[in-house]
Amino acid sequence: EHVTLSEDKMRMRAGREWGSAGMSHSGMTHGKFSWSIAVTRKAKSGGICIGVVDRDRFNFASQNVGADRHSWGYSSLGKKSNGSPEFEAYGSPFGTGDVITVVLDMDAGILSFAKNGADEGIAFRTGTK
After folding, report:
1. DSSP character string of 63-90
2. Most Cβ neighbours (<10 Å): which of 13, 14, 15, 49?
């Protein structure tokens, strides 16, 4: 089991060492969208990757956000990736108690993140359209 969502869809629990939280952008072709995810508990081992996936191409059953080329993610290690085997340095690490805000600007083709309200900068340009 990869992830489990609560009945109200407001909480998720990962069933493996790494957990991913993502919002599909299929159908989100214009405009600017943002949402926040509160990390209520991060295990000492493993990690979390938060981001956006292409719903029509991302393999939800076997991939994590950022590990698949049809996804763009910011990991709890303070790194980013969109399918590269090596995540690149980006932002600061996050964990229990942090709130990560995702900002997806489909008009500009920009994906950025904030940690506890502090802007981490642009993570990805283009490729998210």
Report:
1. --TTTSTTEEEEETTTEEESS-SSPEE-
2. 49
Phi-psi region of 76 (alpha: psi -120 to 50; beta: other; left: phi over 0): alpha
Which ranges of the chain have pLDDT less than 50? Answer: 1
Tally the residues of the chain: 129
* Structure token pair of residue 37: 């995810």
The answer for residues whose C-beta is within 8 angstroms of residue 125's C-beta and 6 or more apart is 109, 110
Q: What is the pTM of this model?
A: 0.80
3-class secondary-structure state, position 48? strand
